[in-house]
């Protein structure tokens, strides 16, 4: 069964063809990231305008690279929530037009759940049930996944998402956007023991909070910049930037590991699946593999190119839900939550 996946929840426009929920025939991705860089974050209006311009060409490319014809598509699976409202509408409207004109069934799927599904592409051998951690620019959530249509949320961030914290700390340190890869690179040369940053506690043990640690970094940098009589972050020096990046990254990873383990214990599972843009972080992958091995757990991360937003995960997840009888009509619209 060939599924056409469509993903436009943030700044990417992605279309993919996936066979039988696991074989990625094509995964075309166009990002408007370079247009947002100068603002240091996503500008929703720019994202949706670029998506409107890109979607037909990206779809044509996915069909061509997948070596299929539109008439070989059996299902259209599109991200319908959560995400930027205008951006979601571009993907959904395109999906509905294709569905109506070619009489192909349509299904709207959850973007965050699709990040979990990225682990089922390219045959990584994950088995249900498991605990799942999604760490992206917009979300940080823990789930218990009993089946693809039985996903229970166990905890989520109460303020900034994990990727958002990487982006904000990178901005404070005068690094580029998106911040995650910059922090990771600087952290390689830094001392993670140098600063004792802390993530704030949360009322519910499986929730997260990242705004406190971001503010702690901000105050420290401000203090240092003032001492050096220069308000630019670069005034604090390269070595200090590397040490702050390493200490921040290590603290965040500690929290992610601790809470993921708690979720596994609570649900009595020894399988942990991770997804989302932050899961591309090498230090995080290394630490999770080490920690789960020590604890006798097993842990999975998607292939790096499938950590970031992509339509292959949307197509694959849609296939599984469709097999369980899920379907959307042409009344499908973007949901805010
Ligand atoms: O999943 P994603 O592509 O988009 C959302 O659904 O939000 O995630 C993007 C986020 C950004 O915040 C980015 O800084 C972060 O993923 N990210 C990373 C790394 N690569 C991307 N964070 C830490 N380390 C990385 N290597
Ligand atoms: Zn995402």
Element layout with pairings:
Elements: E1 2-7, E2 12-19, E3 23-31, H1 33-36, H2 44-65, E4 75-81, H3 85-102, E5 106-110, H4 111-117, E6 130-135, E7 140-147, E8 150-156, H5 162-172, H6 179-187, H7 211-227, H8 238-267, E9 271-275, H9 282-295, E10 298-300, H10 311-323
Parallel strand pairs: 1-4, 4-5, 6-9, 9-10
Antiparallel strand pairs: 1-2, 2-3, 6-7, 7-8
Q: Could you describe the 3D structure shown?
A:
The protein is an alpha/beta fold. 43% of the residues lie in helices and 19% in strands. It is built from ten helices and ten strands. It has helices spanning 33-36, 44-65, 85-102, 111-117, 162-172, 179-187, 211-227, 238-267, 282-295, 311-323, and strands at residues 2-7, 12-19, 23-31, 75-81, 106-110, 130-135, 140-147, 150-156, 271-275, 298-300. Helix 2 packs parallel to helix 3 and helix 8 (238-267) runs parallel beside helix 9. The chain starts with a strand and ends in a 14-residue tail after the last helix. The mean pLDDT is 95. Bound molecules: 5'-O-[(R)-(carboxyoxy)(hydroxy)phosphoryl]adenosine and zinc ion. Zinc ion binds at residues 111, 115, 136, 276, 309.
Strand order of the largest sheet: 3-2-1-4-5
State mean pLDDT (0 to 100 scale). 95
Query: Between the first and last Cα atoms, what is the distance in angstroms?
Result: 30 Å
SS content category: alpha/beta
Q: Catalogue the ligands.
A: 5'-O-[(R)-(carboxyoxy)(hydroxy)phosphoryl]adenosine, zinc ion
Amount of helix: 40-55%
Number of strands: 10
Instruction: Give the overall shape.
Output: globular
Multimerization status:
single chain
Q: How would you characterize the largest beta sheet?
A: 5 strands, mixed
